[in-house]
Specification:
Layout (H helix, E strand, L loop, with lengths): L1 H77 L7 H6 L3 H45 L1
Length: 140
């Protein structure tokens, strides 16, 4: 009987210890799960706040864009003849076209400068010939 009683106490102690361990794990698990839930809930709240802020920013940007569009319409209504249409814009010379124009003007300028120089040379030559002729008649 002593053994049986001792064995019952040992089994009771083991069962109590096992239930304490299981209860401890359950408590730790519950606390960890609660903390994880609070973290996730905090993250979701943060995401919701970010989305709300983003929606507010977008609505503010949309309002700004709408105000700009209204201002542009008002300007177009006030000055209809001063705006260039897309077709007119496409017909206007591009930077490359203007560069070609300036290059041809530069080429023409150098040609004119060359002709002016040659003309001066010819004028000087004619003046020398005329002076020679006038001087040679005066000597004769």
């Amino acid at each position: 009987m002593g053994w049986a009683m001792g064995l019952e106490h040992i089994v009771g102690l083991v069962v109590s210890l096992a239930s304490l361990v299981i209860g401890g794990f359950w408590t730790v698990g519950s606390v960890a799960a609660r903390n994880l839930y609070k973290q996730q809930e905090g993250r979701f709240d943060s995401i919701e706040a970010t989305l709300r802020k983003s929606e507010n920013d977008r609505s503010e940007e949309n309002e700004k864009l709408h105000r700009i569009e209204l201002e542009l319409e008002r300007i177009q209504a006030d000055m209809p003849g001063n705006f260039v249409t897309r077709a007119e814009w496409e017909k206007s010379p591009s930077h490359a076209d203007l560069q070609k124009l300036y290059q041809s003007i530069g080429d023409l300028s150098s040609t004119v400068n060359q002709l002016v120089g040659e003309s001066r040379g010819q004028t000087d030559t004619l003046k020398l010939i005329l002076n020679k002729m006038v001087n040679s008649k005066g000597e004769a």
